[in-house]
Design a protein that fits this description.
four-stranded antiparallel sheet; 34% helix; repeat; 3 domains; alpha+beta; DCAF8 isoform 1; DCAF8; 597 residues; disordered N terminus; Methylamine Dehydrogenase, Chain H; WD40_rpt; WD40_repeat_dom_sf; 13 helices; single chain
Amino acid sequence: MSSKGSSTDGRTDLANGSLSSSPEEMSGAEEGRETSSGIEVEASDLSLSLTGDDGGPNRTSTESRGTDTESSGEDKDSDSMEDTGHYSINDENRVHDRSEEEEEEEEEEEEEQPRRRVQRKRANRDQDSSDDERALEDWVSSETSALPRPRWQALPALRERELGSSARFVYEACGARVFVQRFRLQHGLEGHTGCVNTLHFNQRGTWLASGSDDLKVVVWDWVRRQPVLDFESGHKSNVFQAKFLPNSGDSTLAMCARDGQVRVAELSATQCCKNTKRVAQHKGASHKLALEPDSPCTFLSAGEDAVVFTIDLRQDRPASKLVVTKEKEKKVGLYTIYVNPANTHQFAVGGRDQFVRIYDQRKIDENENNGVLKKFCPHHLVNSESKANITCLVYSHDGTELLASYNDEDIYLFNSSHSDGAQYVKRYKGHRNNATVKGVNFYGPKSEFVVSGSDCGHIFLWEKSSCQIIQFMEGDKGGVVNCLEPHPHLPVLATSGLDHDVKIWAPTAEASTELTGLKDVIKKNKRERDEDSLHHTDLFDSHMLWFLMHHLRQRRHHRRWREPGVGATDADSDESPSSSDTSDEEEGPDRVQCMPS
C-alpha cells in the first residue's frame, strides 16, 4: 500500500509541477532510469548511498519508479531526464563522447558502404566485360579458324588440262578458292553522280548495266572502262534495278525504282536509247525484278505494296497482278524476288517480316494459305521480338538452294526442296546489314561461295560449304557496299555502294590477300549489332537515319553544282528541287536511303 501510495503521490506531484520526494531521491530514481537506457550506472548503489538505509518510502518509491521506467521504454526515460536535469555531469560527458564516437563510426561506415558498392560493381563490371571479351574472342576465332583443304588444286588441274582430261578447266577454275583469295581491285567505272544501286551483266558478259540515284542508266564496256551508252531512265526517283532481258540481243532493259514504276528501255544498235515506257505501277517503292532465264518477254516485279506483278511485253496491257503477299490478312511489303532457275514456275519473295515465301504460279490460291507453297525461316526468328526483315534472297545456279540476308542478322542458306517450315542448313556471320537494303549473292559457276556487302564498307566472301570467311576487301569509301554482281563466265566481280562509281575485282594478286584487320572489323560489327538489338532498331529506323544523311549530302552536292558558272540555268535550279521534293513526299517514309537493288 505504501508503495502504491508513494507512486500515486509522485504522479500527482508531477502533474502539479513538483515532487514530494527529496532531490537526492529524485536523482536516485533518474539514475535507475539511466540504467534501463543502457548507461553503465548501478542504480542500487546510487540509491543506497543517497538514502542511507535499505528500506522506507524513498527506497520503495525508487524501486517502483525503476520498475515503471523499465516497462515504459527508452522514450519515456529521455523525457524524464530532460524534465529533471539532475543526472551526473560526468555521465553526461561519457554519454556525449560515446555518442560522438558512435556517430563518427556510423558516418565512416555510411561513407565506406558506397565505396564498397562501387568497388563491387566495378569488379562485377570488369568481370562481365572480361567474360564478354573472351566470349567475343572465342566467337571470332571460330569464324576465322583454319580453312579445310581446297577441293581444286592448280598444278594437278593444269597437268590434267595438258593431257586433255580436263575439258572444263576454266569452269572449275572460276569456282576455285585460290582465285577468290587473290581478288584485287582492277579499276573503277566513273560516270554517275549518285549512289550506284544496281549492276547487271548481259548474257555474254561483255556489257555491264548500272543504275543510280541520279536517275540515269549507264551501259559499260567494263573491259575498256568506257560507257557504251547512258540515258535518262524516265523514273522520278532512285533507280533500284536495271537488267538485260535474256535472249533479247541486249536490246531490252527492264528497270524499277523508288517511284514504284516498272519501265522498259529499248536500246538500238546505234548505241542509243530509243525510248522508255512504263509497263507497271506499284503503290510503293519497287526494289527488285526477277527474270525468267530464257524469256525475253516476261519477268516479275515486287514492291513495298506487297504486290507481285507478272509482266509480259507481248500483251497490250503487260502487267497483271499475280499475288498479294500477306501474313494473317496483313500485307507484307516486299524488298526482293527471285525466280527458281530450275523451275521457272516457282519464285521466292522476302520483305518486311522474317519469312521466305515460295510460290508456284500455277497453284496460287489466295484463299488457301494466302497462295504460299511453303515458307522458310530460321527457327530462332519465328517468334523473335526483333523485327527481322529479309533484304535480299537468291537461288543457287541449279535452284536447289536459297540464300537469304536478314536485316541486322546473319545470312542463311535453305534447301529449297525441304518441306514447309524447315530449318536453315548453313549460316554466314561477320558482316553487318543494318543501314541499307543490303544485297547478297552466290559466286562461282556452281555457287561455291557466298558474297555480301557490309555497313563497314567491306566485301565479305564465305566458302559456302565451310561457312568460313576466305576473302575480305574494302569495297566502298562511303561506308556501305550494297550491290554485288558476279560475271557469268569469268572470275570477275563487280560491286557498288554509296560511292558514285562501279568497282571491278579480279584475281590478279601475286599471292592470297592477307585478311588484315578482319578480326577487329568482325568484333566491331558484332558489338554494334548487339548494342542496336537492345534498342530494337528496325529497318524503318535505319532507313530514316540514312535518308537524312543522304539528303544532306545531296543538298550539298546540288548546291555546289548549281553555283554560277557550273552550267545550270535558273529555271533548272528552280524546277529540279521542287519536283524532287514532291516525289519524295508522295512516296512515303520507307524510301529512305541510297538503297540497292
